[in-house]
Write a structure and sequence with these properties.
The complex is a heterodimer of chains A (305) and B (254).
Chain A: H1 6-20, H2 24-31, H3 36-51, H4 53-58, H5 61-65, H6 68-81, H7 85-102, H8 123-128, E1 157-159, H9 160-163, H10 165-185, H11 210-216, H12 221-243, H13 255-277, H14 288-291, H15 296-303
Helix pairs in contact in A: 1-2, 3-6, 11-12, 11-13
Chain B: H1 3-19, H2 22-27, H3 42-50, E1 61-63, H4 64-67, H5 69-72, H6 75-94, H7 103-112, H8 117-144, H9 153-174, H10 180-193, H11 200-208, H12 215-246
Helix pairs in contact in B: 6-8, 7-8, 8-9, 9-12, 10-11
Classes of the chains: A mainly alpha (305), B mainly alpha (254).
């Protein structure tokens, strides 16, 4: 015999004991094949119980034949499992099998298993009982229900194709057209060849760094050039979702965050515009409409042909 | 039957024969409008997205409010698109550019003697500026919609890294024309890096490949610009897009 793990044996024995109304020790003993008599005396009963109800339900004629015994013996088990569809299926299957397997057999009407005591009331079924060799047994019935109930509410969705792809394609085409148009009318700057010995005045960084360069003119480079960009610009910026724990997304419920970002935008924008347009030679203040623009990237925006 | 009808019928028959042929069926997966018998059905609408390697960046269905142009202004998609445009024009420019003392001459030749050279260079430069702008606007849009909130916190972090990489790509590209504008803008930027506490001098030396901007710097920035940063940014973009999907698509309506 195959070794069955102890805990499984225990669980199975408990179920068996419950089903048959015997003690657990006895069930274990039976399962280990140590005490046969109990098994034999009990099992035909269970077998009969399994078989009888379907005929009772299917054909109205049969219950008339032997109504009292099934009612007596079956009711406890029957009620217990009556709601389980799986059980019913199993019953039906057994029921179908038995005639096929048994019909040749019933000739052996003799009460071969001598312990066949309680059955005689229903002769037909008792005849079958000894022949049924129980090889498997129902341990438990798990209802076919989902483990989790989906509580997510359905979201109003549309097909990506065409409802998203089309606007995207249009945006893409518009951007391409805009870029080609821009490139056709605006010449990218190209000054004299690089010469490390001639420093232009003023020397300006790309526009997106001009806010920083402007700050450099106010504060020590350690602060304006390093501390602010790395601490504020990177670390604080990346950590922002972890600092702002307010779960609300509507602007009216996160006024501080909106205000914070808007101030940042305004500050960065102002500094950048000052750096681009209002700083001339020696990083002195100039007015672009009086002194001209001191930012080469922008020169052609004014003088394009 | 008029001539026009006969022509239409013949064309439809030829089109069906071609679309239903082995060639087209082998190229285009089921549900493609380029296969025979495409009809506008929910099933085919799903197939169009699922069975195309490019389209399936998208889910089959998206939230209705996310489709509204005013919600995202397509800024994320346009950032990606500009990156693609810059990749294409950049590869084209690489054919005509040497990151040496000849860099300036190469740019001059590009502008004067090579067909569409000037246009492509302009597209690359203005496209780069636009990309910085669009990425920044994309970030602002995300912020104002509170789209960085749970479960999207980490995608915001990736987004900030992508912004940083965009700036680095733009900055390294700024030096390549090797004119006065380029070298002095990079000198200013590189000097800022020199103010980093403790290791400032080393960072600056590493950036310039020396004490000041020279052709060695040019080569260094070139490799960073055409290979290193694109490589890094593509990895981060992949994670970014993947997280957009995994975090449940576009953020909810306000």
């Amino acid at each position: 015999m195959v070794d069955i793990p102890e805990h499984l044996l225990q669980r199975s024995a408990e179920a068996r004991a419950k089903a048959l109304g015997i003690s657990i020790e006895q069930a274990i003993a039976e399962m280990k094949g140590q005490s046969d008599p109990t098994v034999i005396s009990k099992e035909p009963e269970v077998k009969i119980i399994d078989e009888t109800p379907p005929p009772a339900a299917e054909t109205p004629a049969k219950p008339a034949d032997a109504p009292p015994p099934p009612a007596k013996t079956i009711t406890p088990l029957k009620e217990e499992h009556s709601t389980e569809t799986t059980e019913k299926v199993a019953e039906v299957k057994i029921e179908e099998k038995i005639p096929a397997a048994e019909t040749p057999a019933p000739a052996a009407e003799t009460p071969a298993p001598a312990a066949e005591t309680p059955a005689p009331a229903a002769p037909e079924e008792v005849d079958f009982a000894p022949e049924v060799k129980v090889t498997q047994r129902l341990l438990t019935v798990v209802k076919a229900k989902p483990i989790q109930k989906p509580v997510k509410e359905p979201i109003d969705k549309v097909n990506t194709w065409p409802h998203l792809m089309l606007p995207e394609f249009v945006a893409l085409m518009a951007m391409t057209a805009f870029l080609i148009f821009l490139s056709a009318i605006l010449q990218a700057p190209l000054l004299e060849e690089a010469n490390p010995n001639v420093t232009p005045n003023p020397a300006k960084a790309p526009w997106y760094f001009l806010g920083l360069q402007e700050m450099l003119s106010y504060w020590d480079p350690q602060i304006a050039g390093v501390m602010i960009p790395t601490v504020v610009g990177l670390i604080l910026w990346m950590a922002f979702p972890y600092i702002d724990r307010n779960p609300e997304t509507h602007p009216s419920k996160r006024k501080f965050a909106i205000m914070f970002y808007t101030f940042f935008l305004a500050g960065a924008g102002t500094l950048t515009i000052i750096g681009v347009l209002f700083r001339g030679p020696g990083w002195n203040w100039v007015y672009p409409w009086i002194d001209g623009i001191w930012f080469d990237d922008l020169l052609d925006w004014i003088h394009f042909e | 039957m008029t001539l026009r009808e006969r022509f239409q019928e013949t064309r439809a028959k030829a089109s069906d024969g071609f679309k239903g042929g082995k060639l087209m069926s082998s190229i285009f997966r089921p549900g493609s409008p380029f296969r025979k018998g495409y009809v506008d059905s929910p099933r085919n609408r799903s197939y169009v997205v699922m069975n195309n390697v490019l389209y399936h960046l998208h889910p089959v269905k998206v939230k209705r409010h996310g489709v509204r142009l005013s919600y995202t202004l397509c800024l994320g998609g346009l950032s990606f698109f500009l990156f693609i445009v810059l990749t294409i024009t950049g590869i084209w420019l690489m054919f005509y550019f040497r990151p040496t003392e000849l860099a300036y001459v190469d740019i001059q030749n590009l502008q004067t003697t090579i067909a569409f050279g000037s246009l492509v260079r302009n597209m690359h430069r203005w496209g780069a500026h636009l990309m910085v702008l669009v990425v920044f606007l994309h970030m602002s849009r995300v912020f104002y919609h509170g789209a960085y909130k749970a479960p999207r916190e980490f995608n915001w972090v990736i987004g900030v890294i992508l912004l940083l990489l965009t700036l680095l790509l733009s900055f390294t590209g700024y030096l390549l024309p090797w004119d006065q504008l380029a070298i002095w803008a990079v000198t200013v930027g590189g000097n800022m890096a020199g103010y980093v506490p403790v290791v400032g001098a080393q960072v600056k030396f590493g950036l310039f490949a020396g004490l000041e901007a020279t052709t060695a710097t040019l080569l260094r920035f070139y490799v960073l610009h055409v290979l290193f940063f694109p490589f890094i940014i593509v990895i981060f973009m992949a994670v970014h897009f993947w997280r957009v999907r995994k975090d449940g698509g576009i953020s909810g309506p306000l």
